[in-house]
């Protein structure tokens, strides 16, 4: 297997900070003018994606943030949202970002919805129904 170059490793380090490919390229020393294209190119290389996935897996173990944790937390937020007038948008966004950061939402099949996506849709539907009930 191909090993990432030192500059590619720097990109991977920076990408793990905020999962922003363009900014990671800039911080890693790639041209600011072509950073978006470089990020797209780098994120299609198998050896780079593999290294990112390895690091995300280590991070999941270290932080104990698993798909199950995120899904359970989202369910708790949804239940609270239905119980009273809690503004759950901040909590949902935090969990979504946290889950993305550790790769908890990886899909086996790009056409199949993840459990988290289904739960987020249910939360949005319940919130919409609750708002309709308040307005009526």
What does this structure look like?
The structure is a single chain. It is built from seven helices and no strands. It has 136 residues and is mainly α. The protein folds into two domains: 6-62, Arc Repressor Mutant, subunit A (Orthogonal Bundle); 67-135, no CATH class. α1 (6-18) packs across α2 and α1 packs across α4 (46-63). The longest helix has 21 residues, at 115-135.
What is the number of helices? 7
Mean pLDDT: 81
Structural class from helices and strands? mainly alpha
Helix and strand succession? HHHHHHH
Largest sheet: none
What percentage of amino acids are in beta strands? under 5%
Low-confidence stretches: none
Alpha-carbon distance between the termini? 62 Å
Radius of gyration: 18 Å
Query: What overall geometry do the principal axes of the alpha carbons give?
Result: elongated
* Percent range of helical residues: over 70%
Tally of discrete structural domains: 2
Count of DSSP strands:
0
Describe the protein's topology.
Elements: H1 6-18, H2 21-28, H3 35-42, H4 46-63, H5 67-83, H6 89-101, H7 115-135
Can I get a quick summary?
This protein has 136 residues and is mainly α. The protein has helices at residues 6-18, 21-28, 35-42, 46-63, 67-83, 89-101, 115-135.
């Amino acid at each position: 297997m191909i090993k990432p170059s030192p500059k590619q490793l720097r990109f991977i380090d920076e990408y793990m900070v905020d999962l922003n490919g363009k900014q990671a390229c800039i911080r890693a020393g790639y041209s600011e003018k072509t950073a978006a294209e470089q990020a797209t190119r780098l994120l299609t290389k198998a050896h780079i994606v593999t290294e990112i996935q390895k690091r995300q897996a280590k991070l999941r173990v270290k932080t104990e943030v698993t798909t199950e944790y995120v899904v359970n937390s989202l369910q708790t937020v949804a239940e609270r949202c239905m119980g009273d007038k809690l503004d759950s948008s901040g909590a949902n966004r935090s969990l979504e970002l946290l889950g993305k950061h550790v790769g908890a939402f990886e899909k086996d099949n790009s056409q199949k919805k993840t459990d988290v996506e289904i739960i987020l849709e249910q939360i949005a539907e319940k919130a919409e129904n609750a708002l309709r009930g308040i307005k009526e």
